[in-house]
Amino acid sequence: MLVPLTNAPRGYAWGSRSLIAALEGRPPSAEPEAELWFGDHPSDPSEVGDGSGRTLDRWIAEEGAAHGVAGRLPYLLKLLAAASVLSIQVHPSKRQAEEGFAREASLPADAVRAYADDNHKPEMIVALSDRFEALCGLRDLDQSRRLLEALGQAADPLRERLADEAGLRAAIGWLLSGDARPVVDAIIAALADARSTEFAAELANARRIAVWYPHDPGVVVALLMNFVVLRRGESVFLRAGMLHAYVSGLGVELMAASDNVLRGGLTPKRIDVDELLAILDPTPGPVPVVLPVAADNGTRGVEAFPSDVPDFQLLRARVSAGSGAVIRPTGPLIVLATAGSVSVETESGTLAVTPGRAVFVTPDETEVRISGDGEAFVAQPGCVRGDHG
Questions:
Q1: Cβ atoms within 10 Å, residue 28
Q2: Taking Cα atoms as reference points, which of 242, 240, 254, 243 lies closest to residue 100?
Q3: pLDDT in tens, 312-336
Q4: 388 neighbors 98 (Cβ within 8 angstroms)
Q5: Cβ atoms within 10 A of the Cβ of 74, count?
Q6: What average pLDDT does the structure give for the chain?
Q7: Nearest in space to 254 (alpha carbons), one of 276, 267, 235, 241
Q8: Does residue 41 have a pLDDT over 70?
Q9: For a tag on the chain, would you pick the N or C end, based on fewer CB atoms within 10 A?
Q10: Catalytic residue IDs
């Protein structure tokens, strides 16, 4: 069965007034539009466009079983539009989420909690804008020490702590705890005159973040992270424990169905430094850019963005008048249009989809055909080939 989906953008302060609006072909919005969610997550389930006024979670509860949908979707698909930096954050592994959620089970109902659920939250983002900027993972230690040299004596107390991974974790805790306030202020002040041919982009990014958050220790932590620039169609996969913060641009984001976020800085939201450090993976090194590859499993005209998790698989179909795409679903899937005009067809019918709109396809459909002249991303359950903790 084909179920049309829509939703209203979530208005977080870091969102863009123009990126989602331009994708949908409408004027810029009066307020920031940060994320557009497609799925059945209880925090913001999609609206079912059948005139019933139902959300997708309710539709699944009432009609899903008759069409092979067994329980909640394992993934959440989003459009993400950032005009300024998101919080520096990490997500737990499955084991860490289960243990953390169990620890908090006895807390009073109105208590502040670190864990919203017992699930992990690996995620992948694919750039839709020509440029998408992100901070992903911790930079190689030798490189970070060279970058800090450009900041002169102000950065000496931090550079001296970066001897190994243990020192790196401790340095991040020191910065975020507030104990390093004089050093943080001195480094932020030194950014104005810092120059480096090797790290010009990283320093420019830190100066921009300092304008948004002028006294936040996250500005200095950002100097220890990989500054990644994605071009349209490129992606990154963020595993459990990887420190990250998106900076700017429009992207398609797919993640496990969880709301577990541990924040350390660059946000007015709740920060939990101790829990962030407990799940942080301090392993330094570059984060590879993931490029799409030809999809398998009987598909045609479809590319896949590799991610070794059971919760999700992200596909992309680019179609034209003479070239369509065929997908053999691995379970319930969502087709999100991102350019042009596409149609989704199964044995039960056909639905036209415009950018910023989506279609939920139930798993009793054995083949999904995408046609038209445009682009669509497809979320469906993935497959596991490794241990994800």
A1: 12
A2: 240
A3: 999 999 999 889 999 999 999 999 9
A4: no
A5: 20
A6: 95
A7: 235
A8: yes
A9: C
A10: 263
Q: Which residues of 268-305 are buried (b: 16+ CB within 10 A; e: fewer)?
A: eeebbbebbbebbbbebeebeebebeebeeebebbbbb
Contact 314, 307 (CB under 8 A): yes
Q: Which amino acid is at 292?
A: P
